[in-house]
Amino acid sequence: MARRGSYAKGVAKREEILERALDVIAREGFRRTSVKDLAEAVGLSQAGLLHYFGTKERLFTEILRKRDELDNAAIVPTPDAGMDADDLRERWVGVIRHNQQVPGLVHLFAAMSVDAADAEHPAHEYFTERNARLREALTDVMRDRLDPRIDPETASRLLQAVSDGLQLQWMLEPDLDMAATTTALLDLIVPPTEEPT
């Protein structure tokens, strides 16, 4: 029984670390947040913090996984909730608006995605799996509403590429309205349902 209890405590502490790390990085920024800062935020030493993740890179990868978990819950509130293209538009743009409120997490995502291009990087698998899952989900939702000249997977890649690329532009140009730009693309590839007159 003690083993099961200590496992549950370890899982709970790991979740606490990830939730606090999301807050700290969102507020302080990725480059200004050290492992020491994250450890202090949850009352651990650096070694104690890394005990739960192994390395700094794995810690940051798990922070991104936690961010995805929360973003996915905002896009698809429950696994069995049906979603159509109009729902996708609203929720996708909502997540983009949220991202503009957490620049530190956007910077973490961008920096890690570049580093993860190296197949040896600890986040490589996370990014390749994430991208594939995201494209599959987008393709499923958009398939029936796309202009027949656009392949659904291509449309999904475009939406993903624009969203990720806009984050880089926004970090350089903070006045950029990522949500409006993404909405413009969605208007082209998945036009909104016309309201009956």
TrEMBL record:
Keyword annotations: DNA-binding, Repressor, Transcription, Transcription regulation
The keyword Transcription regulation belongs to this UniProt entry's keyword annotation: yes
Stored Gene3D superfamilies: Tetracycline Repressor, domain 2
InterPro entries, sorted: BetI_C, Homeodomain-like_sf, HTH_TetR, Tet_transcr_reg_TetR-rel_C_sf
Residue ranges of domain HTH tetR-type in the record: 11-71
Highest taxon listed in the record's lineage: Bacteria
Classification via PROSITE patterns: HTH_TETR_2
DNA-binding region range list: 34-53
Pfam families named among the record's database cross-references: TetR_C_6, TetR_N
Protein name: TetR/AcrR family transcriptional regulator
Annotated source species: Microbacterium aquimaris
